Amino acid sequence: MWEIYALAILMIVGSIVAVQTRYLLSAVISLAVVGLALCVAFLYLQAPDCAITQIVVEVIALVILIRATGIEKDLSEIKGRREIFALVSVIIFIVVFAAFAFRALSLLPEFGSPVMKVAKEYIEKGLEQTGSANLVTSVLLDFRAYDTLGEATVLFTSILGAIVVLREIGRKHR
Amino acid sequence: MSPLKQKEKGMTNIVKIVAKFVSPPIVLFGIYMVLHGHLTPGGGFPGGVIVASAFILLILAFGREMASQKLKLSTASTLESIGALIFLSLALIGIAAGGWFFFNFLPKGEPLRILSAGFIPLANIGIGLKVSGGIFAVFVTLIMFRITTGKGGR
Amino acid sequence: MVFFLSFVIFLIGLYCVITKKNLLKIVMGIVIMEYAVNFFLVLLGYRKAGVAPIVVEGARKANFVDPLPQAMVLTAIVISIATLAFIVAMCIRIYEKYHTFDVTEIRRLKG
């Protein structure tokens, strides 16, 4: 599966470019490259639902981010005092975190053979109990429909919050 | 004055004409993806975002004022609420019909046909309306905000 | 080994959130962290020589990959766009009030 390794390395390079570059528009475009590599990785991992959703949502996220970075003209990185102590402590923390994570991630089941205790039931009985050919949709809207209700609530609430924050006139000045 | 003739608002004429012709097939593709959610990859969520992106394309091509005249925020808000209410009422009917929340009360039918899988197509329609209305509403809100005093607000 | 690569992407996003001073760079760090977590979840469900979990005419019971992480990731991707819109709306409000995106300035000018 060398394709997935290559795409993961492309994502690492793209995200390093997005973090380090000075101009904000270039950072947004590198973020687009990371999202596109993620979509192709989803296709190689046999997840077409996630790939379609990822590419479509990423385009909307790009439009929103370009709207945000277009406010101040010709953005460049804000230069302040280089805080040496903060930088060194962050790097030490990240190295310690990575060491513990490497130990923990090597205890997971090997890549390519998941445990699948509950999913075996869903795969075997999915078609006859729900009638839908797409097993991911049957999980989302029949077996675990309560989680989809929770997600619809989160969507509604955060969009409501965004509209209320940017409201210009109050209700009295009509 | 028709939107094509307002030369100083929005993008050039070529972009306006192409956007006008390409938007209805995009809406049709989004509706196809919502309705066939139980047969092919996709479903309510990407289908709703695709429908919203067709209208976003229209606003980007024709300029900011079109959002206040033709594609209003209140319409998108109403659609979003209707979609959420459809999804919730399907869940509540399940209590009345079968005994538990989200009970699949419609007949299953034979697989791989479009009218199968119980209420899953109806739930997909509700989710599609909700997501498309919501994404379009938040985009119009971000666009219509003008930053007062000073530079910015493009 | 692939799991650790996805964790490296998460660490790059975390570094960006902690050390950068521009508010929009912090938002991009959050987006990178979300990409890394979705990648990790779908990696967990992959089966060797598996096919996508969609039943087609000829093959009723093929070697499907795990559909549960894919459903979770679909939910997570759509939620991430809503929270990104909310965060950007707040950033625009902050810019209107303070006329800068610098986090150190915003911390000093109170009220």
What can you see in these coordinates?
The complex is a heterotrimer of chains A (174), B (154) and C (111). Chain A contains seven helices and no strands. By secondary structure, chain A is mainly alpha-helical. Helix content of chain B is 63%, strand content 0%. Chain B is built from five helices and no strands. Chain B has helices at 13-35, 44-62, 65-69, 73-97, 120-144. In chain B, helix 1 (13-35) packs antiparallel against helix 2 (44-62), helix 2 packs parallel to helix 5 and helix 4 (73-97) packs antiparallel against helix 5. The longest helix of chain C has 32 residues, at 67-98. The chains are: A mainly alpha (174), B mainly alpha (154), C mainly alpha (111). Chains A and C meet through helix 1, helix 2, helix 3, helix 4 and helix 5 of A and helix 1, helix 2 and helix 3 of C.
Give a short summary of the structure.
The complex is a heterotrimer of chains A (174), B (154) and C (111). By secondary structure, chain A is mainly alpha-helical.
Please give a handful of descriptors for the protein shown:
heterotrimer; A: 174 residues; mainly alpha; 7 helices; B: 154 residues; disordered C terminus
Strand content of chain B: under 5%
Radius of gyration of chain C: 20 Å
Highest-level CATH class of chain C: Mainly Alpha
How many alpha or pi helices of chain C? 4
Alpha carbon gyration radius of chain B = 19 Å
Largest interface, Cβ cutoff 8 Å:
A-C, 82 and 76 residues
Question: Largest sheet of chain B, described in full?
Answer: none
CATH topology of chain C: Helix Hairpins
